[in-house]
From TrEMBL:
The chain crosses the membrane at residues 6-29. Keywords: Membrane, Transmembrane, Transmembrane helix. GO terms for cellular component: membrane. It is a single-pass membrane protein. This is SPFH domain-containing protein. CDD domains: SPFH_prohibitin. It comes from the Bacteria. Pfam families: Band_7. InterPro entries: Band_7, Band_7/SPFH_dom_sf, Prohibitin. The lineage of its organism: Bacteria, Pseudomonadati, Bacteroidota, Cytophagia, Cytophagales.
Length: 274
C-alpha cells in the first residue's frame, strides 16, 4: 500500500497543530481568583471597558490583549512631613488599605493604565493628609483631636478616590505615628500633665465642698427637729407622760415605793424596786 499520497495531509495537519500550539498563549488566558480582566482590540484600537471578565480560563482572538488587574485589597504605607496650622513641621506615618472597584477596571485602565497606585492613590493620600493637618495645631493633632483628624483624612480621601473616574474603594486609613520636634513634644506633654493635675485638684475641692454642704444640711435638719421637739414638750404633757409611766410601773411585780406629788413639778417619785 502506497502511503505517500497521505503525506501532504499529514504535513498540513502537523503545521496546523504547530500553529495552534504556538498561538495558544495568545488566544487562551487565565484570570485567577481575586483578579479581573479587560480586552483591548489592537486592530480597532478600542477597549471593551464595559465587559469585565471574571476568574477562569477564557479565549480571545490573537490580535487582542487581555489586561489583568489584581482587585484584592492593597496597602500602602507613607511617611511624610507636613505643616500644622501654625507652620510647625510634623512627621506622620500613614497606612491606607484599598482596592479597585471590581466593575470599573476598564475605566481605571483607560485613565491610569496599570499604574493607578502611583499615579492616583499615593498623590491623593499625601495631598489630603497635608490639607487636613494644616487645619489643626500640633497640640490638637498630637493629643486632643487625633481621632477627629484621622476621621477627616479618611472621609476626604475616600470621597476623592471613590469619585467617578477614579473608582477606588478605600477600606481603612490609619495614622500609625505622629512625631513632633522634641522641645514641642515635651512642652505639650507638660501642659497636659498640668491640666490633669488641675482637674484632680478641682475634683478634690468639689468633693470637700459637697461634704461640707452635706454636713451643713444635716445639722440644720437636726436643729429643726430639736426645735420642734422642744416646742411640743409642755408642762402638762410631761406630767401626763409621768403619770402614765408611773401607772405602768405600779402594775409590775417588782417591789417599789411611789410617792405621789413628791417629784419635781409634782410628778410621782419612785423609790426602791427589785
Amino acid at each position: 500500500m502506497d502511503n505517500r499520497k497521505y503525506l501532504p495531509l499529514v504535513i498540513t495537519l502537523a503545521v496546523v497543530l504547530i500553529l495552534l500550539i504556538s498561538l495558544s498563549s495568545n488566544i487562551i488566558y487565565k484570570v485567577k481568583s481575586g483578579e479581573r480582566a479587560v480586552i483591548f482590540n489592537t486592530l480597532t484600537g478600542t477597549l471593551d471597558k464595559n465587559n469585565i471578565i471574571g476568574p477562569g480560563y477564557h479565549v480571545k482572538v490573537p490580535w487582542s490583549d487581555a489586561y489583568i488587574y489584581d482587585v484584592t485589597e492593597n496597602q500602602i504605607e507613607e511617611t511624610m512631613d507636613v505643616l500644622d496650622k501654625n507652620g510647625l513641621n510634623i512627621n506622620v506615618d500613614i497606612t491606607v488599605r484599598f482596592h479597585p472597584m471590581y466593575d470599573s477596571i476598564g475605566e481605571i485602565y483607560e485613565t491610569f493604565r496599570m499604574d493607578y497606585v502611583r499615579r492616583l492613590v499615593i498623590p491623593e493620600v499625601r495631598s489630603t493628609v497635608r490639607q487636613v493637618m494644616g487645619r489643626y495645631t500640633a497640640e490638637e493633632i498630637y493629643s486632643t483631636k487625633r481621632p477627629e483628624v484621622e476621621g477627616a483624612i479618611k472621609t476626604e480621601t475616600d470621597a476623592i478616590l471613590g469619585a467617578p473616574g477614579n473608582n477606588i474603594e478605600m477600606r481603612a486609613l490609619l495614622i500609625r505615628s505622629i512625631k513632633l520636634p522634641e522641645q514641642i513634644r515635651l512642652a505639650i506633654e507638660n501642659k497636659l500633665k498640668q491640666e490633669q493635675e488641675a482637674l484632680a485638684y478641682q475634683f478634690r475641692l468639689d468633693k470637700e465642698e459637697s461634704e461640707a454642704e452635706r454636713k451643713r444640711i444635716a445639722a440644720e435638719g437636726e436643729a429643726r427637729a430639736n426645735k420642734i421637739i422642744n416646742n411640743s414638750l409642755t408642762d402638762e404633757l410631761l406630767k401626763m407622760r409621768g403619770i402614765e409611766a408611773t401607772t405602768r410601773l405600779s402594775e409590775s411585780s417588782n417591789t417599789k415605793v411611789i410617792v405621789i406629788g413628791s417629784g419635781k413639778d409634782g410628778l410621782p417619785l419612785i423609790l426602791g424596786g427589785n
